[in-house]
Amino acid sequence: MCLSGGAMMGLYHFGVVKALLEANLLPHIISGTSAGSVVGAIVCTRTDDELMQDLEPEVLVKHLTCFSRPWKDRLKSVMQNGCMFDFDDWMALIKWFCKSEEEDMTFLEAYRRTGKIFCITLSSTSKKSPPVLLNYLSAPNVTIASAVIASAAVPGFVPPVRLQIKDEDGFVHDKGETYWDGSIRQDIPTKGLAEMLNCQVR
């Protein structure tokens, strides 16, 4: 299942996910781009029982606050930093979706916990670099939270993001290259999913 970008339009994905979950039809391979990566994160870091609880509207709505910064503060931030929102603020908000409030979860840890394969698309800020598809095979130690913010880092909203890596001792550090919104170059990664995970059904 491919969850595309679309800012607040991405909220529709939650209804689709819940309907598939209730019908026991939720796929185990899910890709997400931009807003879709936020939805994919909540799906692929939780067991089905946890997901059913956290998709209840009264639970979910409390965490949908990434655009709550007042316009006055957004404009001030644009003047100072060139972006309306701050990476650290978004990181604090996104951790709930990635089940990483206490400890950052990586792609490999999420796969081992749930059996679901989560893929996130990114666009490199380098024009010569191809789009990137992250999952537990290509980026096992990358934290899902940093990848989600990178995939949703629309120019002018959030600065380009360096991915965070968790080492063997559990310490998290940044990795060199910067990325931004996956929808810029590859909203639906059909080629990457076919090559990496043999996903052929459309």
Write up what this structure looks like.
- By secondary structure, the protein is an alpha/beta fold.
- The protein starts with a strand and ends in a 5-residue tail after the last helix.
- The protein has nine helices and six strands; from the N terminus they run βαβααααααββαββα.
- The model has no long low-confidence stretch (mean pLDDT 88).
Q: Which term fits the overall shape? A: globular
Portion in beta strands: 15-25%
Q: Give helix % range.
A: 25-40%
The biggest beta sheet reads: 6 strands, mixed
Report the count of strand segments. Answer: 6
Main features:
202 residues; alpha/beta; six-stranded mixed β-sheet; 9 helices; 6 strands; 16% strand; globular
Topology readout:
Layout lengths: L1 E2 L8 H11 L6 E4 L2 H10 L3 H7 L2 H4 L10 H11 L5 H8 L12 H8 L2 E8 L7 E3 L9 H8 L9 E6 L5 E9 L9 H8 L5
Parallel strand pairs: 1-2, 2-3
Antiparallel strand pairs: 3-4, 3-6, 5-6
Helix pairs in contact: 2-8, 6-8
Offer a quick outline of the entry:
37% of the residues lie in helices and 16% in strands. The chain has 202 residues and is α/β, with parallel strands linked by helices.
